[in-house]
Known about the structure:
By secondary structure, this protein is mainly β. 0% of the residues lie in helices and 49% in strands.
Amino acid sequence: VQLQAxxxxxxxxxxxxxxxxxxxxxxxxxxxxxxxxxxxxxxREFVSCIRYxxxxxYADSVKGRFTVSRDNTKNIVYLQMxxxxxxxxxxxxxxxxxxxxxxSIRASDQYDYWGQGTQVTVSS
Length: 124
């Protein structure tokens, strides 16, 4: 299984970015796909996920600003990030798991597969 995240960059506060995560080596449509982020000196934190059935979940800090979606024909999961804030600055990682239960979707140690991360920097 390989997950390749892309789309990060430098953006001013209030701006937008769209992250992509291309997956291979798995039956994509059956997997929960998630986004986490990790800032320097901080623990990795849950951002959002989209389940195999299309249900979406968000961290309170990004709700209303970020939108997760998936294209099962292309094996890609997206994270549209709007109204970005300096505190959104982090390395963003995509993750995948097939068996994860709903109560565990925010736990990074429950995901089997991880991408390499993409840097998002929001300037004030």
